Amino acid sequence: MPETGSRPQGFGFVIPMTALLCVQGLLSLSVLVVPVIAPIAGADLGVEAKSIGVFTGVMFSASMLCSLMSGAVIGRFGAVGVVQLCLALGAAGIALITLSGVAALFAGELLLGIGYGPNSAASSEILARYTPDRFRNIAFSLKQSGMPLGSVLAGGVVILLVEPFGWRASLLGIGAVGLVGMVLMQGMKPRWDSGRSTKGRAPALGSFLAPLRAVLAERRTRRMCIASLSFIYIQFALSTFLVAYLYQEIGLSSAQAAGIYAAAHMAGVVARPALGAIADGLIPPVKLLGIAGLLMCSGCIALALFTKDTPVAAFYVVALLLGSTASGWNGVGMAEVSRAIPADQVGYIMGGYLFVCFTAVVTGPLVFSGILALGGSYQLAYGLFAIGAGVTGLTQLLQRD
Description:
By secondary structure, the protein is mainly α. It has helices at about 15-45, 50-65, 70-75, 80-95, 100-115, 120-130, 135-145, 145-165, 165-185, 190, 210-215, 220-250, 255-280, 285-305, 310-325, 330-340, 345-375, 380-400. Helices cover about 80% and strands about 0% of the residues.
């Protein structure tokens, strides 16, 4: 493994990247499968399917707060130890939910959120120590592909497992896989956590907001925080409201709306590693993020201008465009943050960046819903969100890489 402070060489990052991709996919599946099964398990859970968003908000709020403590727990347990802890908390959260009832659902979602928050910071620290600069974007993008992959798997669980085995057994099966992953990671801990340095980390841990101040203090990371806010708003405007917009406002059938939604998610799965490869070899990351922002802006403007007479094929084109950009940029963004800070402080400062990202995850759907509640239309909401992505895209393009 690379010594602390040395520059990693070769392809030694492939094994940790693959392992962390699996962890990211499993944790994403764990947090996303509950809303998917809610229409089936709502009576047992004690809530209506339409109310599950409240509990999802609790989960992501817990992730947001726990991301700020990533540096502290990584310093205490090591990055691999934190990944193991995240898997254990995810399994425990899943198990609690199977007990049924509002209290069990709340406690389970809380544990899922606590486990989901620090994982990206811990895995980013491992990747930053092992990945050469020339492969950094593709490595982070492949690892982050676990997020849309988790979405696809969540839908697959419902189709393949819930009907023959029931929703409880399906969730417990996911939790069991998480525990297996936790045990397997133990074999990597002596190697991937050896030689860790906590230099420069301890003095800042006295303040809960120190990681946030650290990530906002440096120009490059502050720029990525601002860009991530507007990009994540677009990402969740797409994933949360696209089906409702197509079905209720445009008048497409539920099957058509679901097909367009699935196309957008699959585009994200393919685009993450593709954009990472482009950022490593063809277009500088900052410029690529700028182009992505302008494409997001264009896609949202198209959604705002479409009507009931718009051909269905046009919605597929825009869904593919938005899916590949709004869901595809994350790995390049995280790689850019990791590149701007010392490798032995990636987990600590990345926690502040992830706090900003989770803030957007929590507030983005609320802002969109607020526009609708105040009498605005889906078209107006998408149009307003397009402004932020467009300004961010232009700002990124004007920056020096």
